[in-house]
Design a protein that fits this description.
mainly alpha
Amino acid sequence: MLETRFLRENEKLNGITGISFVAFLVFPVIGLCCLVIPDLVVDVLPYVVGAALIVSGVTSAIELFRKKPTVLEGEIIGRQLVVGILGVVTLFQGKHAIIFLGVIWGLFGLFEAGNEFDSFIRKAREKKPFIVPLLLCLLELGLALPLIVSPFYNIDNHLQILGLQLMAFPFIVWFERRKEGPKEKPDEPPKDPNP
C-alpha cells in the first residue's frame, strides 16, 4: 500500500530525510482533508499532487545526483525524474487530471499487488507463513482494478481509503522503524589524541 511503497523508496534513496520529514507531517493533514472535505480534495488534488510530484521527483533526483559516484544509482534518478514529469503532466491537466490520477493510482496498486504476490511466493517456497501477503495481494488487486476500469466513478471511495492511510502513515512508519531496530552506524575512525 502507499506507506509500504514510501518506506521502500525511502530506503532506496538512503538518507534524503528533508522530504521524508515533510511527508511525515503533511500526509496526516491531507488524509484528514480526504475524509472531511472529499469534494474539495477532488478539485484540488491534481494541483497538489502535481506540485508534490514535481518537487519530490526533482529534489530527490538532484540529491541523488550530488552523492558520490559509488552511491549513485542511475535507475533511481531516472525514476525520480519520471515522477517529476508525471507531476508536470498532472499540474497542466488541472481538474481534468483526476481520471489520469485514478489510472496511475490503479497502476501503482497493481505493481504493489505484484510485490505482495512475489512475497507470497517467496514465503510459500521458504515454508513460512504466507497468508498475509496473499490477502494483501488480493486486497491491492481489488482496490486497483476498479480505478483502472472506471477511475472517475471509483475515486471517491479511494479518497476515503487514502485519507485513512495518510492519517495512519506516521504510526506505520514508526512501527516499521521500530521493528527494524536501530541502524548501525559505520565505525568512526579513531580520534587523534594529539590535535
